[in-house]
Model the fold of this input.
Amino acid sequence: MTMKIAIIQMDIAFGDPEANRAEAERKVQEAAREKVDVIVLPELWTTGYDLSRFDEIAEKMDGPTHRLLKELCKKYKLAILGSVAEVQGENYYNTLVGYNSEGTRILHYRKAHLFRLMNEEKYLESGDTKGNFSILNHKAAGVICYDIRFPEWMRTHMLDGSKALFVVAEWPKPRVDHWRSLLISRAIENQCFVIACNRVGSDDNNRFGGHSMVIDPWGNIVAEAGGHEEILYAEVDLSDVEEIREQIPIFQDRRPSLYE
Ligand SMILES: O=C(O)CCC(=O)C(=O)O
Done:
């Protein structure tokens, strides 16, 4: 029941999807040599925060990035998750997608909480559906960056028995302490694995903090990256979740009627 994960903590060329796709393809090839089951790429890994050019660089759900992801998943027999710039009609979204080892899309989640500090709300529409999905026959959920500051949103994802929370981010370096504490808290309070990929490098306005992490349902750090480019590997046993949920049965003990 173990799942072998590779988190690709990469720098992102601003507004240059072709360069980012080429770099990600090289890194996926490298990670695939380690026989991983799942690869996680950062938030907006094809474009960075070049929001004012989304009319040129955002893609439909059958665009070149999606075709590449499907091809890589099938070629290396693994799943890949990561968020990309999506256009649908006249609207733009920050969308977390996942494909399985057959190249089938398993996840389509539009960032629900747009981050004003980076002007997301000026350019993007927010999503309003959850990021629950199934990976290797396990229930899981995927969310994007700022979403982790909303524990009530994370909790709604965990009520179906999900065992892992995937997070993709472009989290700035000055608040990397928040990133670490929030991720650990989300793991403890939901008794789930947290698998979180942040980018590194910088754009004109921000430096990004790295520290991608894998955290177990007890809140222990299984693996943590530093502040530079790297591929972080970890192997987790999702059945650990059941043991901890039996030991301290928070999902049975919740009293939702008090929380409204
Ligand atoms: O909440 C934060 O401090 C960072 C959030 C963020 O950078 C984002 O959502 O893109």
Notes: The CA atoms of residues 8 and 118 lie 23 Å apart. The pocket of 2-oxoglutaric acid is lined by residues 115, 118, 145-146, 149, 170-172, 175, 178 (CB under 6 Å). The chain has a mean pLDDT of 98. The radius of gyration is 17 Å.
